[in-house]
Specification:
CATH topology: TIM Barrel
Structural class: alpha/beta
Low-confidence stretches: none
Strand order of the largest sheet: 1-2-3-4-5-6-7-8
Helix content: 40-55%
CATH class: Alpha Beta
Shape: globular
CATH architecture: Alpha-Beta Barrel
Radius of gyration: 17 Å
Number of helices: 11
Number of strands: 8
Largest sheet: 8 strands, parallel, barrel
Order of helices and strands: EHEHEHEHHEHHEHHEHEH
Distance between the termini: 14 Å
Bound molecules: 1,3-dihydroxyacetonephosphate
Strand content: 15-25%
Length: 252
């Protein structure tokens, strides 16, 4: 039985004061005990969040990106997975579509980040997803499996014992357009089936999150699907009531 996980990606939002307020608001909500919870603040706010009480409730702290290089060195502007582990991160997003598209990250770069994350003892959340044009051309499956394969071929299926996958269709991110539960389930099933072909047990146990306009109003029906193990939540994770309601939906 896979545990559900709800992860909040705070993206490039917040300043110290608003993060403090969000932490207070989050602490005032109720959360189910049977759901994993993780938050991904901006790099600048990792320590602030790490020092907060929430993490004593065993929430996971994660970063939104890490360097391709693991060892500390002359890499201006970069943050190593080792440095993230040092401020109590246990997870890191790799290959988010906003980085693939806006920062021109290739599959090869994303693969190196995945490896760096695991080498530092972090769990990478590998983000996959097709654009609207790719979906309309009937290429959603091909796109997602190509992105997955770029990492899988390099690291081997065994690495997915200590990794999480997030399916985030680009057309559903920040648009208010959520994939229907059936659309999301179809791709989740394809991803899991593909991993199972490589290793039945790992395919069965890997957590696959859905991301793209998840909110309290649609979370329960998404999380009820067989291969959806929780959500990677953007906008709604900045609102404590919404975020906690999404966590509760995952607990039912
Ligand atoms: P939204 O929930 O704002 O659509 O963002 C999804 C996302 O990109 C999470 O990583």
């Amino acid at each position: 039985m896979r545990q559900k996980l709800v992860a909040g990606n705070w993206k490039m939002f917040g300043c110290r004061a608003s993060v403090e307020q969000l932490l207070l608001d989050l602490a005032a909500q109720e959360y189910p005990a049977n759901v994993g919870i993780a938050v991904f603040p901006n790099f600048l706010h990792l320590q602030q969040v790490s020092q907060n009480l929430l993490l004593q409730k065993k929430w996971n702290l994660g970063a939104q990106d890490c360097a391709t290089e693991l060892e500390l060195g002359a890499f201006t502007g970069e943050v190593s997975a080792k440095q993230l582990a040092d401020v109590n991160c246990s997870m890191v997003l790799v290959g988010h579509s906003e980085r693939r598209i806006l920062q021109f990250e290739s599959d090869q770069v994303i693969c190196r980040k995945f490896i760096a994350a695991q080498s530092a003892g972090l769990i990478p959340i590998l983000c996959l997803g097709e654009s609207l044009a790719e979906r309309e051309a009937g290429k959603a499956e091909e796109t997602v499996l190509t992105q997955l394969n770029a990492v899988l071929q390099e690291v081997g299926v065994g690495a997915f014992k200590h990794a999480i996958i997030a399916y985030e269709p680009v057309w559903a991110i920040g648009t208010g357009l959520t994939a229907t539960p059936e659309q999301a389930q179809e791709i989740h099933g394809i991803i899991r089936g593909y991993l199972k072909q490589h290793d039945e047990l790992i395919g069965q146990s890997v957590q696959i999150l859905y991301g793209g306009s998840v909110k309290a109003a649609n979370a329960a029906e998404l999380f009820a699907m067989a291969d959806i193990d929780g959500g990677l939540v953007g906008g709604a994770s900045l609102n404590a009531e919404e975020f906690s309601a999404i966590c509760r939906a995952a607990g039912n």
